[in-house]
Amino acid sequence: MAKKKNSEETAAKAEDKKVEEEDKKENKEVKKEKKAKEESNEEKLQKQLAEKSDQLLRIAAEYDNFRKRSQREKDALYVDCKASVIKELLPVADNFDRIFANPDITFEDYKKGVEMTFKQFETVFKDLKVESFGEEGEEFDPNFHNAVMHSEDENLGENVITNVFAKGYKIGDKVIRPAMVAVAN
Q1: Which of 149, 144, 113 is nearest to 131 (CA)?
Q2: How many Å apart are CA 79 and CA 62, to the nearest integer?
Q3: Minimal CA–CA distance to 122: which of 165, 89, 154, 170?
Q4: Within 13 A of 75's CA, how many CA atoms are on the CB side?
Q5: What's the CA gap between 86 and 78, in Å, rounded?
Q6: Rounded distance, CA 147 to CA 170, Å?
């Protein structure tokens, strides 16, 4: 019976050893699967990171292209606007050329030609919605006038324009050039 007991114990030990080895195998497989999943998750994260980095680079490149295109369009628009204004002024310049090109012109004809050309110039300003301002007797406004002289005159009120050295010009509310004036008191 002792032999039988030993053999049962040996069989039980062998069985335990077998179960233990199977558990170790299972643990190794579970660990391998876990490691594979972790690597799989890491690869997914790496892939997502690469996709987001690529997307970010593309957005940055698109913005840079947009910025450059906008600057080119702005520059082209500026040139077109200048050309449009000059195109409006060319007939005035042509009339001045005609006045000066005629050697047999009398003083009266010369004066009349300059007056007509000046009126044409005023019409161009009107078409471009350019307004002049700064007349004697107006109240001084530092937003529109540049006082270059000051005088004392008891007959005039305070901050009244007494003399205009150069008219001011504006388009809408935008001052192109302030009027250069003399101000009383």
Answers
A1: 144
A2: 26
A3: 89
A4: 6
A5: 12
A6: 17
Higher pLDDT, 100 or 88: 88
- Cα three-residue angle 43-50-32, rounded to 5 degrees: 5
**pLDDT tens digit sequence for 137-174:** 999 999 999 999 998 888 888 899 999 999 999 999 99
**pLDDT tens sequence across 6-62:** 666 777 777 777 777 777 777 777 777 777 777 788 899 999 999 999 999 999 999
Report yes or no: 25 and 32 within 8 Å, Cβ to Cβ: no
Total residue count of the chain as it appears in this document: 185
Start-end of H helices in 102-149: 107-127
Inter-residue contact 145 to 179 (CB < 8 Å): yes
